[in-house]
Amino acid sequence: MIKLKSEREIDEMRYPNAVVGEVLAYIKEYVVDGVTTYDLNKLIEEYFKRRNVLPAFKGYAGFPAAACISLNEMVVHGIPSKKIMVKNGDLVSIDVGTIHNGWYGDGARTYAVGNVDEKLAELVESTKGSFFEGLKNLKVGNRLGDVSHAIQSFAESNGFSIIRDYVGHGIGRNLHEDPQVPNFGKPFSGIPLMNGLVIAIEPMVSMGTWKVKVLDDGWGVVTLDNSASAHYENTVVLHNNEVEILTIPEGLDV
Ligand code: MG
Fold it and tell me: What are the structural domains of the chain?
């Protein structure tokens, strides 16, 4: 069941989502050669404390940290560790979730560390681009499949593939609500888009195969061919026949 949000509820969702955007902007300068993913997670968790939000992922299905930090061929759900050190040339995907007054925020970025391969930089740009292509289709009168299809078409036209096993989602008083928001699909399919819909759109894009497997730790998701992947996620709302990106509050460059 899809829970459409009222204007008052959308107002409540602004803060936890703004903090998601803030922390993704804040952490950027720390994603450098030599930092561990443990350190990055710690900085994020401390930031959340200062802003009076709870880390939504910590404890979620037993996940042990505030942020999922996934390097290179790891697509999502990387567990931060003192043993994982970021290196020049890496892609570092950071996914964070927040809770404030019972309302959730969710967003992710992939950061390129130092001098990355040109093709990797293209992958990051294309993943972001696919999100915005999808967003153009988020409008009353369209269907959800129009958004999914636009994301897929953009990424594939750039020569990349869309991860299929993980998708975006509705969000509100729960981290994951209906509907599921796949990053692939057919136009004119799926639910009709309506005002009050709040969803996290999150293309996960790979340089090689779209097939993935889960590591033995039960969390980390990697591409089967070990090709690099990127992730770009914002929580967005469709209301008053317009789209608003809740995780990119006005004036923030993230
Ligand atoms: Mg999400």
Answer: 7-245 (3.90.230.10)
Contact between residue 41 and residue 83 where contact means Cβ atoms under 8 Å apart: no
Q: State in Å: Cα 250 to ligand 1 middle.
A: 21
Q: For residue range 109-163, what is the model confidence (pLDDT) as tens digits?
A: 999 999 999 999 999 999 999 999 999 999 999 999 999 999 999 999 999 999 9
CA-nearest of 67, 160, 82, 72 to 113 is 72
Ligand 1 centre from 109 Cα, in Å?
11
161 vs 168: CA distance, rounded Å: 16
Distance (angstroms) between ligand 1 centre and the Cα of 39 equals 22
- Residues having C-beta closer than 5 Å to ion ligand 1: 106, 200
Q: Tell me the CA–centroid distance for residue 47 and ligand 1, in Å.
A: 19
How many Å lie between the centroid of ligand 1 and the Cα of residue 196? 18
Residue in this structure with the two tokens 């990355």, named with its chain if needed: 116
Query: Does the model's pTM come out above 0.85?
Result: yes
Exposure on the CB side of residue 214, measured as CA atoms within 13 A: 8
